[in-house]
Amino acid sequence: MVIIKSSAEIVKMRKAGEIVALAFAAVKDAVRDGVTTGELNRIAHEVITSRGAVPSFLRYNGFPKSICASVNEVVIHGIPSEKTVLKNGDVISVDIGAYYDGYHGDRAVTFGVGDISDGAKRLIQTAEDAFWAGISHAREGERVSDISAAVQQTVESRGFSVVRDFVGHGVGSSLHESPEVPNYGQPGRGVRLYQGMTIAVEPMISAGRSEVRIGSDGWTVTTVDGSLSAHFEHSVAVTANEPLLLTAEV
Length: 250
Ligand code: MG
Hints:
Elements: H1 7-30, H2 37-50, E1 54-55, E2 67-71, E3 74-76, E4 91-100, E5 103-112, H3 118-135, H4 144-156, E6 161-162, E7 168-170, E8 177-181, E9 198-201, E10 204-206, E11 212-214, E12 221-223, E13 229-231, E14 234-237, E15 244-245
Helix pairs in contact: 1-2, 3-4
The chain binds magnesium ion (MG).
């Protein structure tokens, strides 16, 4: 069931999203050669809890850390660790959620560490561009698959692949709500978008093939062919006009 939020609920979701944005600002400053993903986890955890919020991912279905930190061929759900040291040329997708006053915010950004290859830059930019192309359709009267098709078209037109085994989602008082928001599909199908729907749109893309596998820890999702991956996400509210970014900086 798709849950329509009142404007008062969307104000609350924006508060949760602001905390996510603050955590991102701190993590972005800390990403550099030599830092561990465990340290990035601590930094984000501190920002979220100091604002009176709870990290959405901590203990979610048993997830052991407060953020997901996914390096290079890891697409999503990388578990932060003191053993994972970032080095120059890496790309790292950071996914952060915060639960505040009854609502979640959910956002992901892929960062380059130091000097990254032109191909890596293009991949990261494409994930973000696909997000913006997708949410240009996140308005009342369009359908979820209009978002999906725009994401897919953007990614594939640049020679990259869309990861299909994981999808965007509704977000609200639960971290994952209906509807699913795939990053591929034919336009004009499926769930209609209404004002007050809140969704996390999150292109997950690969420089090579689209197939992924889950690692032995039960979480870490990597590209099967070992190619680089990028991920970009905001939680957005559907309105009659432009979508409202819930997890952007104030
Ligand atoms: Mg998400």
